[in-house]
Specification:
Helix content: over 70%
Largest sheet: none
Structural class: mainly alpha
Strand content: under 5%
Oligomer: single chain
Length: about 260
C-alpha cells in the first residue's frame, strides 16, 4: 500500500485583521506611546489654557483666528506625535523586532500599511479629543471677550478636525521617513531639516513661484487646515488637505519601496 500524506491547513494564516491586531498590541504596549501622546495632549491643553486665561480684548490679538489662538500649542504637540511616528517604524530596526515582524508577514507591505493605519487611528483620535477639550476649556475664559466662539460657529468644527488631521498627516510623513531611513536620530534630523527648516530657507528666495509652491508644503498646508477663517497667503482647506495627503502618501511610498528592496 502506498501511504498518502494529508495536509491540514494551518489555523495561523496571515490576515489583514491579524496584522492590524499585532501592530495595535505593539503600539499600545510601548511606554513611549503613552509618554509621547500624553505629552502632546498636555502641551496643547496647557498652552490653550494659558491663551484663554491671559487673553484680553485690548491686547492686540483680536485679529487672530479663534481656533488658531486656542490651539497654538499644537505647534509643540505635533513634535511629540512626529517623534512617535518615527518610533513606530525606526525603533523596530534598532531593536531587531522588524525581523520577527517580516518573518511572520513575508510580503512586508502589509506590515507597513498596518503600522500606518493603526498609528493614524490612534494619533487622530487623540489629537481630535485633545483639541475639542482644549477649545471648550479655553472658551470658559474667553466667553466675554471678542474671541468667544462655539462649536457650532462657521468653520470652528472643521478647523478643530483639520488641526488634528494636520498633525496626524505630518506624523505619517515622519513614520514613512522612519521606515525609509531606519534610524531614529536620522529620521528626526531629516524631518526637521526637510519639513521644518527647508521651507523657511526657500521662503527667502525672491520668486513669486516659490512663495506659491510653499503654501502646499507640509507645515504650511497643515497650518491652513487649523484655521476657521482663511489665512492670508495660505491655501484653501481643500487643496491644503489634498497636498498634505500627497506628501504623506509619497513618504509611505518611498518607505514601501525601501522595504521591498532592502533586507531587514
Amino acid at each position: 500500500m502506498t501511504a498518502t500524506a494529508s495536509t491540514t491547513p494551518s489555523p495561523y494564516r496571515v490576515t489583514t485583521g491579524r496584522v492590524l491586531r499585532s501592530e495595535w498590541h505593539k503600539l499600545r504596549s510601548l511606554r513611549s506611546t503613552w509618554i509621547t501622546l500624553l505629552s502632546a495632549a498636555a502641551l496643547v491643553l496647557g498652552v490653550g489654557l494659558v491663551m484663554g486665561t491671559t487673553y484680553t480684548s485690548d491686547g492686540g490679538d483680536s485679529d487672530i483666528d479663534t481656533v488658531v489662538l486656542v490651539l497654538y500649542g499644537s505647534l509643540l504637540g505635533q513634535l511629540c506625535v512626529v517623534v512617535l511616528g518615527i518610533l513606530v517604524t525606526a525603533s523596530e530596526y534598532s531593536t531587531g523586532m522588524i525581523r520577527a515582524s517580516l518573518t511572520v508577514v513575508p510580503r512586508r507591505l502589509p506590515v507597513l500599511l498596518a503600522k500606518a493605519a493603526v498609528f493614524t487611528a490612534v494619533a487622530f483620535t487623540t489629537m481630535l479629543a485633545t483639541d475639542l477639550v482644549t477649545f471648550l476649556a479655553a472658551q470658559l475664559f474667553l466667553h466675554d471677550t471678542d474671541q468667544a466662539a462655539g462649536l457650532t460657529d462657521p468653520g470652528v468644527l472643521r478647523a478643530i478636525a483639520g488641526s488634528a488631521a494636520g498633525v496626524t498627516l505630518l506624523s505619517l510623513i515622519a513614520l514613512g521617513l522612519g521606515c525609509a531611513l531606519r534610524s531614529v536620530p536620522g529620521s528626526i534630523g531629516a524631518f526637521i531639516g526637510g519639513v521644518l527648516v527647508l521651507p523657511e530657507v526657500l521662503g527667502m528666495l525672491p520668486y513669486d513661484a516659490v512663495d506659491s509652491a510653499l503654501t502646499y508644503f507640509p507645515t504650511q498646508a497643515a497650518g491652513a487646515l487649523g484655521s476657521s477663517t482663511p489665512l492670508p497667503g495660505a491655501a484653501a482647506p481643500g487643496p491644503a488637505l489634498l497636498a498634505l495627503c500627497l506628501w504623506a502618501g509619497a513618504s509611505l511610498a518611498a518607505a514601501a519601496l525601501v522595504l521591498r528592496r532592502r533586507d531587514a
